[in-house]
């Protein structure tokens, strides 16, 4: 009786642990490590990437073609050209990344591929690269307020206000585009609903464990 009692306790613990693990896997999806840098791209097997077609008519083309880094050379060698929307659809299929300006692609994702709760299936790297500064203010030579203006810009940039303004402008642009167009989430960007066919293996394993327990108790 003591042996049977401890065996029942053991079976109860195993069954409870299996049930908890099954529920957690069905409710919370596992997350893979995000791709942050070009080095991460080149280390992946059977992975493709592309850049927006219009970007290869300007500075990014020179950046990829003249860069001396082996990683950038490998990126350029396997680089495809694809517009933003087809590229995002390829990303949704998997094993694909798209290279684009963060602010530009952020507006597209926020407008067309983000729901009302703020969820989007796409991830934008937090470690983007700066190709070159291309914004500036023009003043006549010897302007008395030039130094004061430059110091003020550096102070605003250092306190993070400029970054905050940029995020606010992008968010406002996304809201305007959502109001102007009917938001439709593409089927490729949606995850398939969980059905019984996804859980058959887990139930078979559970039934097998129950049968083994019953036979052992007999």
From TrEMBL:
SUPFAM superfamilies: Periplasmic binding protein-like II (SSF53850). Keywords: Cell membrane, Glycoprotein, Membrane, Receptor, Signal, Transmembrane, Transmembrane helix. One of its GO terms (molecular function) is ligand-gated monoatomic ion channel activity. Residues 1-17 form the signal peptide. One of its GO terms (cellular component) is plasma membrane. One of its GO terms (biological process) is detection of stimulus involved in sensory perception. The lineage of its organism: Eukaryota, Metazoa, Ecdysozoa, Arthropoda, Crustacea. Belongs to the glutamate-gated ion channel (TC 1.A.10.1) family. The keyword Ion transport does not apply. The chain crosses the membrane at residues 201-217. This is IR6 protein. It is a multi-pass membrane protein.
């Amino acid at each position: 009786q003591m042996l049977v009692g401890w065996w029942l306790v053991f079976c109860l613990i195993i069954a409870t642990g299996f049930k908890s693990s099954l529920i957690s896997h069905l409710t919370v999806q596992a997350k893979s490590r995000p791709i942050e840098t070009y080095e991460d791209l080149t280390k992946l097997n059977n992975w493709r990437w592309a850049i927006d077609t219009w970007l290869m008519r300007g500075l990014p083309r020179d950046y990829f073609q003249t860069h001396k880094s082996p990683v950038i050379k490998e990126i350029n060698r396997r680089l495809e050209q694809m517009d933003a929307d087809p590229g995002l659809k390829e990303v949704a299929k998997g094993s694909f990344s798209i290279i684009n300006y963060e602010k530009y692609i952020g507006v597209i994702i926020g407008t067309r591929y983000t729901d009302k709760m703020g969820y989007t299936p796409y991830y934008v790297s937090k470690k983007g690269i700066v190709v070159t500064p291309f914004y500036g203010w023009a003043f006549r030579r010897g302007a008395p307020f030039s130094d004061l203006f430059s110091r003020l810009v550096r102070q605003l940039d250092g306190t993070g206000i400029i970054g905050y303004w940029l995020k606010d402008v992008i968010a406002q642009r996304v809201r305007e585009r959502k109001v102007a167009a009917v938001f439709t989430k593409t089927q490729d960007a949606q995850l398939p609903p969980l059905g019984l066919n996804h859980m058959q293996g887990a139930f078979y394993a559970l039934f097998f464990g129950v049968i083994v327990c019953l036979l052992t108790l007999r």
